[in-house]
Amino acid sequence: MDMCLTRRSAGVLRLMWLASMALVTALSLLPDVGPPAVFDHVDLVAHLIAYAWLALLPRLALRQSDRTWAWGMLGLGLALELLQGLTPYRSLSLWDMLANTAGVGLGVWLGGLVRRRLPRT
């Protein structure tokens, strides 16, 4: 790794990433699950935050030069939206796909900022 991150902390980040992917998958496919409607389009904000988190964790834990995980997170968002369209209780949303994509971009960017500020090994 090219930053001051121990193997143990990188492993914890990887476990958090896997658990977060499982949680996002479950919440995306369960009926009637979502954030409370405290303002218009709160679901889009939730998508943005969730996918930013899903992109931030591997950006910190994995090798900097390997960004195939970012494509994987984009694929996860697309696949989950398509699966929602196949359920009788959820619907496919292009706006959700856009929020997912923006979230991945935000997470990659934030992860880059954090990595640059950590001491080099």
TrEMBL record:
The keyword Transmembrane helix applies. InterPro entries: VanZ-like. Signal peptide: none annotated. It holds the Pfam family VanZ. The keyword Transmembrane applies. The chain crosses the membrane at residues 12-30, 42-62, 69-86, 92-114. Residues 44-111 form the VanZ-like domain. Keywords: Membrane, Transmembrane, Transmembrane helix. It comes from the Bacteria. This is VanZ-like domain-containing protein. It comes from Megalodesulfovibrio gigas (strain ATCC 19364 / DSM 1382 / NCIMB 9332 / VKM B-1759).
